[in-house]
Amino acid sequence: MSILRRGQQWSTFSTIWHIYDAKWQDPYKSAEKIKHYLMGLYKPIYHPMNYCGDHVIVINSKEIALRGDEWRKRVYFHHTTYIGGASWTLAWELHKKNPTLIISKAVYRAMKGNLQRRHTMQRLHIFPDENIPEEMLQNVSHQIKQLRPVPTRLDHIAPEEMKQFPKLISYPEDYVLK
After folding, report:
1. What backbone torsions phi and psi does residue 61 show, to the nearest 5 degrees?
2. What are the φ/ψ torsions at residue 91 (nearest 5 degrees)?
3. Per-10-residue mean pLDDT for the chain, 178 residues long?
4. pLDDT the model gives residue 135
5. CA distance 43 to 36
6. What is the pLDDT of residue 96?
7. Which is nearest to 54 in space by CA: 105, 112, 124, 115?
8. Fewest beta carbons within 10 Å, which of 54, 73, 89, 153?
9. How far is Cα of residue 103 from the mean position of the Cα atoms in its chain?
10. What is d(CA 19, CA 129) in angstroms, rounded to the nearest whole number?
11. Cα angle at 129 between 126 and 131, to 5 degrees?
């Protein structure tokens, strides 16, 4: 077997560490993408009962973006298994308590039908900011591309760049805003 073929075989059977930046990303669309790496769906040796998934590190989970007014309308259900232990929590309240829970619940839901999903979720590491332990960061060898680009805030644009931007309307010098 050639060295190239042997390298391909090793990478197929090895466990890879991926990193995903969740800043300004929809957690439910991101969960579908993260699921492919956690379960190993992109590998040619994939089987539902086979351990072939990878580790995924999700950073900036504190800065996720939900569509429309889902922060106020999306509700998460929890039951303590005691009588009267049912509770419903709004998305913004849950995110305020624990900024990693929404992404965790989205990925868990995306793996519906997977008999191994509780074990697969152990390979998902979520951090609310960019502070990752050094021993985990040393293992990372691949970055998962974001679904949409993060827009630049207006207060982060340099004044020189703003002056060079083409104007749509030129107001007269004596124009007064009311």
Report:
1. -70, -15
2. -60, -45
3. 68 87 96 95 86 94 95 94 94 96 96 88 96 96 94 90 87 81
4. 95
5. 9
6. 97
7. 124
8. 153
9. 7
10. 13
11. 90
